[in-house]
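Table S2 (continued). Query chain:
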Amino acid sequence: MRKLTFAFAVLAGLGAAAMAGPASAAPALPMGASASDAVTPVQMNRMERRVMHRRMERRMMRRHMERRMMRRHMERRMMRRDMRRM
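Corresponding output:
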């Protein structure tokens, strides 16, 4: 019974300590740095956008080809299985 009471006391203490800290989930900033200094929006230039777009297209095409190959493989297996049954 004493162990249970002690466990509740420890949990209550940890909960109070957590509530006393900052309410934000963001990491703490070093002294002298404000929130506006920490994050600055940056717009991509044409070259960066083009590189990202081409990479995305390559990934999409690769996935498409993988699916196509798998489908052809499965169809061939099914055809062979059907041919063996005859």
